[in-house]
Structure formats: structure tokens, C-alpha cells
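Protein in question passed on here:
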Amino acid sequence: MALLTPQGVKKVFQFQKSAGREHLRRLLNWEEFDELRDSRRSILLDTLYESIIFAVGKGFPWVEVAKVVKFTEELLEETKGCSITEAVTILGTKLRDCQGQFTATHLLALCDYFHNTFIRHYKLYQYVLGQDQEVNLTVAHLEVCAPPQPLPLAQGVDKAMWEHEQQVAKLSLAEVQKRTSVMLVKETLHLEEEHMLQKKFSEVPAQQCGLLKREELENLIKEAIHIQIECLKKLLQYEIQITFDILDLKFQKKILNLNAPVPFPLSITGQGQDESLKFNKATKGKKAQAKK
């Protein structure tokens, strides 16, 4: 991992996937291995490579991209043999420890990435990377099919209308992402609250749990309530900000819809065709009267 520098991960990203994976292997100081026979190491290399693609796609600086790879490798190593509950706790702890290394936006994106990949498929990761597997390999040569023919131009959309639809879709996607971020923050704060409460209760010696004085018990309860209130306060502040952001997105969509371009050309089927025929008849009638 010592050779995994910002310049190194930048080169990994700039290469094609096969060359990028090979360059990443050398940066990690791994020995050469057979991709087909050592499937575990191949999958692990793929996982680290995909973490680079994710981080770059989310706009992480190159310094942080290298840290994401290190974060991924450490997480996979530290969660070996753990239950999914323990894995979630380890993930939450590592995310909190990285608060000074990533911005809040990038930390939230990192949380989202590992929840949707590592945690969601946790048993699969444990099965593949946590124990030796017997590999029965079958190689098949498949024909690569050419892409389908493009649709007729008559089914195309006017450029202004297409751009308008893209802008509306972009705003809708941003709104969905805002709502998703609220759920992720809520889950992260819940883990943080649980960790802080466990830490506070663990400070009380086990032999004194049933012998606490009234004042000590009251102080312990007050501290627990304070922890819950602080986490709730953070959540409410974030939800209020996200609500304002969503309202702003809705307002932008409303403005776009009010200024939506008129579809062109006009439809000549159904009702549009009837209107076109009426217009042509009226035009011919006016021309006949003008000649008279």
C-alpha cells in the first residue's frame, strides 16, 4: 500500500480496465497470479479497482481516491469472519474515524457506496473472500453480437425538447438522491448514537450496575438523553436543509415546465391530422375567393 500514491491511482484510472488492474497490482506490491485459478485474489483486485472508479466518478481528489482504496482493503480485512451486525459497526466506526480525511459530501457518498455494495451483499463477500473455494472452471467462447440498428429519424425528438427532458430528469434524479441521503444520514446517526450509548454504559463497572446511587443513576440517564437529543438535533438540521433543497429542485422543475419548448414538428396523426385537413381546406377556400 506504500506505493499507492495519488499519482499512482490516477494512472490506474487513465488506463483501460485490464491495464489499470495490472498497474494497481504492481502498486499494491502483489506477486503475479493466475486470474482463473486464483479467483479470490482476482475478485479482491476487482473490488479495489472498482473503488477507484467509484471515487473518481464521485469527484474525489486523487489524494482521497488513494485513501478510499486503503479504506476498502482495511474494511475487507477487518470484517473477515464477522457477523453483518459487527460489519456495520466496523463500517460506521471507520467512517467516523475518517471524518477529517474526507469532506461531508464525499463521506456520505462513501457510506452510500459500501451500504449498497459491501453490506447489501455481505454474505457473498464473506463466502468468496473469507474461505477457500474449490474452483470448477468451464471456458466457453461466445459470439459477440453487433449493436442493433438505430431507430428511424421519424421517431426522433426535437433537440430543444430533448434538452428540456434531460434537465427535468436531472432535477428529478437530484431530488431522489437528496431523499436517499436523508435515509443514509439517519442510519449513520443511529449507529453513532448506539455506539456512544454503549460506550457510556460500558464506563459503569459491571459489579456496580445494581448498586448505583440515585444521583449517579440520574446523571447516567441525563447523559443518555443528552446523547439522543444531540443526534436527533443533527438529524433535524440535516432534514430541514434537505427539505429546502428539495423545494428548490421542485421550483426549478416548475420553471422548466412553464418554459417548455413547443414540440416540433406537430403531430399529423389522429386529431392533429384532422386539424391539418381543416387548415388546408380553409386555405384553399380563401385562395378561390381571391381569384374571383
Notes: The chain is about 70% helix and 0% strand. Residues 266-273 have pLDDT under 50 and may be disordered. The longest helix spans residues 214-258.
